[in-house]
Amino acid sequence: MDNRPIGVFDSGIGGLTVLQEIMEQLPGEDVVYFGDTARIPYGTRSRETVIKYSFQCIRFLLSKDIKAIVIACNTASAMALEEARKVFEVPILGVIDPGANAAVSSTKNNKVGVIGTTGTINSEAYQKKIRRAHPSSEVIGISCPLFVPIVEEGWEDTDVAFITAEKYLSGLKEHTVDTLVLGCTHYPILRYTVGKVMGDGVKLINPAYETAKCTKKLLKEEGLLSEKVDGAKYEFYVSDDPEKFRRIGGNILRKEIATIQKVNIEVL
């Protein structure tokens, strides 16, 4: 048993969907969450910069005596995960492998869609992982850049979200995909709207859920599970103004975030 917290970081707010799944699947695990809100988005940065930022986030979390790290950011998972595992001894998980593996297990017709930010889709991180595991798969990636601001405005269940989703997802419907990866940490908030557009015949893969499941499995295998079964504590840190994080984050978690501390991540 190990009662130290799990560390979770993202370039901003979207990673709270991963935290939400960890809270539900591991209710006894304390968590320290860091949102690098001063430097969002990571998707427009070079690989070298994303690695630098990710290492600074990891060093901050290590200062909180965490026992494992979850990179709750698609861009950082794609660009920095393997490098981080070479440098840091703590167990580190990303969000791409769990989502890609779940998509491979789900598809019946070998046609998989992936939606994400422009940076994630252009990196082909999900597409490559899925094709490597299942070479005969047809993988279609579509960038949906307006989904993030729709979520951050709290418009996920509005006509605006539905019309936007219809526009973005029409090509995937034409390809008759039977599995769709929600390849941005904001997108699980839109799963009802996306599901309504795609129809009942399409399985939606939520990498946040899959990542939490993999985190639970890792902690169990490594003997790192907390002895608590509930009553976990959560700490929140950001690198910029906490108020936007508090407002949007509270909507994502469906609970008030009482205390958020701002830190200077650049010095790490």
From TrEMBL:
InterPro entries: Asp/Glu/hydantoin_racemase, Asp/Glu_race, Asp/Glu_racemase_AS_1, Asp/Glu_racemase_AS_2, Glu_race. Its EC number is 5.1.1.3. One of its GO terms (molecular function) is glutamate racemase activity. It is an enzyme of class 5 (isomerase). The keyword tRNA processing does not apply. GO terms for biological process: cell wall organization; peptidoglycan biosynthetic process; regulation of cell shape. Substrate binds at D10, S11, Y42, G43, N74, T75, T185, H186. Pathway: Cell wall biogenesis; peptidoglycan biosynthesis. It catalyses: L-glutamate = D-glutamate. Signal peptide: none annotated. Pfam families: Asp_Glu_race (PF01177). Keywords: Cell shape, Cell wall biogenesis/degradation, Isomerase, Peptidoglycan synthesis. The active site is at C73, C184. Gene3D superfamilies: 3.40.50.1860. Provides the (R)-glutamate required for cell wall biosynthesis. Belongs to the aspartate/glutamate racemases family. HAMAP family: Glu_racemase. This is Glutamate racemase. It comes from Anaerosalibacter bizertensis. The gene is murI.
